[in-house]
Amino acid sequence: MTDTVAEMNKVMDEADCLVNEQQVQAAISNLADDITSRLRDSNPLLFCVMNGGLILTGQLLTQLKFPVQAEYLHATRYRQETTGGILEWKLQPEADMNGRTVLIVDDILDEGTTLCAIADYCKAHGATEVLTAVLVDKKHDRKAKPGLKADFTGLEVEDRFLFGFGMDYKGYWRNAPGIYAVKGL
Ligand SMILES: O=P(O)(O)OC[C@H]1O[C@H](OP(=O)(O)OP(=O)(O)O)[C@H](O)[C@@H]1O
Ligand SMILES: Nc1nc2[nH]cnc2c(=O)[nH]1
Fold first, then answer.
1. For the chain, does the N or the C end have fewer beta carbons within 10 angstroms?
2. CATH number given to 3-181
3. Beta carbon of 109 within 6 Å of any ligand 1 atom
């Protein structure tokens, strides 16, 4: 076993499971119902925020009960760290969003800097309405704007460094089938 695999197995062994797989699945189903009710007649353009939004988007898409045009973009500011830095656009969206309702899907709203920047980008590129959906909203008062919330939130989770269901620890464990907090963080 490589040192990295051993380290990552230890991270999981020592982590606290904050939300189990069943609870996450229930939250995603609720998100899908709410999004379907709100957007089924709006022909939204959905953007998955890579990388973290990958798993939520995949699972959500199959539960949305209307025809969805799904695209992706990639913006990152945590990289291999547990605190956020400057937002870097790795891939700006190519799809024409002029006059469209846009739905941005990501794993987590932590400080909200990432979602605010993406929403601003979409508005600047002609989107008439920008809505946001996240699996997790972290409970703290360090939001980019006071009281900032996503339009659709699956779960509220305590202020720890999380991994699982799209969220990584040093690039690993996005695949963990629940939401975990790293020991001591
Ligand atoms: O609300 P914020 O404090 O801005 O943080 C949230 C963002 O952080 C994570 O992305 P990250 O920068 O780790 O990139 P990744 O998804 O490619 O891992 C996550 O996927 C969100 O996009
Ligand atoms: N993996 C991960 N990414 C984040 N981005 C912002 N907050 C978090 C977090 O708690 N975990």
1. N
2. 3.40.50.2020
3. yes
